């Protein structure tokens, strides 16, 4: 079985949203830097491959999303995430999806246990439209594909913004979706911020077990302690489902230096990563599929956190 696999290509650097002039808060350089950090940290234990779009990736995207929406993006080069028409962004959206798809194939084939796509976990994308800088929902597709292969996936998301698209797209399945996020901020109106009971001090949880939704809504300004408390509850949920593979949206935008009001530190992220590794060892034979999701300190903390989380999981599942 191979080492940590990282899906990266310089095509990712063509992900220029908004006006396309580099002013958008999503900076694609974060993916390149995170990959470089991991190679520096793990040397030959990190295998980087360039994801190639296959002839069936479009069909895979259309199996999850409205085909008319897929046509609009891939043929019309139109999305609400950028101004006008952009062939580069449209092609990159499919390439980012392909990065996760190739990792899924490699995990199913037994070529790797831990895979990382720094431009993966486009967790806000919905059935017929983009949202929140996300066009094609690779993690929702990955969960369904892994289930089709006979595995039991569980999706965990600690991005500061709730994984609403994944929850929506997996609503009619028995695949559990777990999201730890900032309370009351985007996205709202999707059920992720409902509060039926209080959980300890400043963390609130809501879940609908019949739909396998679990949401931890953490008050803005909270830090590592609250994140750890939510992760303790995650451990209980994971022990109930006993997944064969964990899908992780490892958003770095809850960091204290980011834009959204949370106060997580590197130590908090690494503690959460170690908990994921323990769960993966116990239930999923070390299998973890990781996507970068959000993070807006593109040249500093975001790639450093991604690299730290991925290397910590990899180091602890061997």
Distance between the termini: 11 Å
The major β-sheet equals:
10 strands, mixed
What would you say the CATH architecture is? Answer: 3-Layer(aba) Sandwich
- Sheet-strand content, in percent, reads 5-15%
List segments where confidence is low: pLDDT < 50 over at least 5 consecutive residues. 195-204
What is the CATH level 1 assignment?
Alpha Beta
CATH superfamily: Histone deacetylase domain
Principal-axis shape: globular
Strand order of the largest sheet: 2-1-3-10-9-4-5-8-7-6
What is the chains' assembly state? single chain
Number of strands: 10
Which value, in Å, is the CA radius of gyration?
Answer: 18 Å
The proportion of residues forming helix, as a percent range, comes to 25-40%
Task: For this entry, give a set of tags.
318 residues; alpha/beta; Arginase, Chain A; ten-stranded mixed β-sheet
Which helices and strands appear, and what pairs or packs with what?
Layout: E1 4-7, H1 29-42, E2 46-49, H2 57-64, H3 67-74, H4 87-108, E3 114-117, H5 138-148, E4 153-157, H6 164-169, E5 177-182, E6 197-199, E7 203-208, E8 213-218, H7 224-241, E9 245-249, H8 266-283, E10 288-291, H9 301-317
Parallel strand pairs: 1-2, 1-3, 3-10, 4-5, 4-9, 5-8, 9-10
Antiparallel strand pairs: 6-7, 7-8
Helix pairs in contact: 1-9, 4-5, 7-8, 8-9
